[in-house]
Amino acid sequence: MKVLVVGGGGREHALCWALSASSLLTRLYCAPGNAGIAEVADCVPIGAEDIPALVAFARAESVELVVAGPEAPLTAGLADACAAAGLRCFGPMAAAARLEGSKAFMKEVAEAAGVPTARWARFDDPAAARAHVRAQGAPVVVKADGLAAGKGVVVAATVAEAEAAITEIMEARLHGAAGATVVVEECLEGPEISFFALCDGEVALPLAAAQDHKRVGEGDTGPNTGGMGAYSPPPVFTDALRDEVMARIIRPVLAEMARRGTPFRGVLFAGLMLTAEGPKLLEFNVRFGDPECQALMVRLRSDLLAAMLAACDGELAQFDLRWSAEHSVVVVMAARGYPGSYDKGSVIRGLDRAAAMPGVQVFHAGTGRREDGAVVAQGGRVLGITATGGTLRAARDAAYAAVDLIDWPEGFCRRDIGWRAL
Predict the structure, then answer these.
(1) Which of these, 208, 248, 327, 374, could form a disulfide with 395 (CB 3.0-4.6 Å)?
(2) Phi-psi region of 19 (alpha: psi -120 to 50; beta: other; left: phi over 0)
(3) Is residue 420 part of a domain?
(4) What three-state secondary structure class fits 329?
(5) Considering its fold, how many domains does the chain have in total?
(6) Phi, psi of 295, deg, nearest 5
(7) What one-character DSSP code corresponds to residue 160?
(8) If you average pLDDT over every residue of the chain, what do you get?
(9) pLDDT of residue 39
């Protein structure tokens, strides 16, 4: 089969790496890809949101499966355009992708399905939102309703912080049109878990769980980022909790989406809080997480392409997935200044040394290659150094040993990935 992966980050490198091992694969494309992806796939210079060009390329090259990496193409209708052109797409139609595209829609679906989640209210008027916050008190969570690249959530410790967040999101439009509406939520307490399930519209199979590290600084301090590292599996997320999440959150939502005539196919990513009252839903994403995907793919023992085809074709009832018992850790190396302003173009050396370590995979995110062959930084999050080991500590030690072999003075990483478990 010919497969086209859409996107150019660390998640897409991990997906391409896993897909490249499939016995079903004949040729792998990635649009637009990056310097690392170019080692396992043919990179195509088409933007991830240029849906007409992606569909035209897939048709011209007789691609049999399009795999959506990021959320934006899905909410914009990539799967719909593929279906209209007679192409399979791993990922939901736009109507189902609203589970990520609109926080308010997600909360409405969760309520209709009887899913445990935080108390919430939606507002189109900033004055009404501020009045609600003053009445409720703090701590409270303020979320931009639309897509904000993982940065549209403010956990406000005080009423003043919450009011400032409402002003920034709704009036200053920090996240553009995504902030026209906000959702204000009760602040839940407990460990936060990323859980993934494979869905074919009717049947859901559990994939695996991971724990992300959103804040830029060690000890979870500083501003939110797209994710500075992750590990899998989180020891706190037991098999019993997995079964409870499938029964109380994933399957009821899948049934509710089918009832609405918008069945969900693809990977459903539930952001969970493990509260004293049990697991509660924080948010849904309609694609793999980044960097959680990197931690998951190195543990997956089943054929990823076969699993994706089963989801597309409604055949998950006859499918199962095998996972390695090993632990995995991904450490994100970012450009100094991230998540604020940062420079591009610095040279990264030592990648081959790091990748040669046993159990280590170096996944590229914001990288490019110069004409002289040098790998250079082209984004904020640049590399995902991923390692496996018999224990979480062994995996973490291997990941940081590989990080230390990389010569990139303009980069930095957190040194405490996995700290909550260790």
Answers:
(1) 327
(2) alpha
(3) no
(4) strand
(5) 4
(6) -70, -30
(7) H
(8) 95
(9) 96
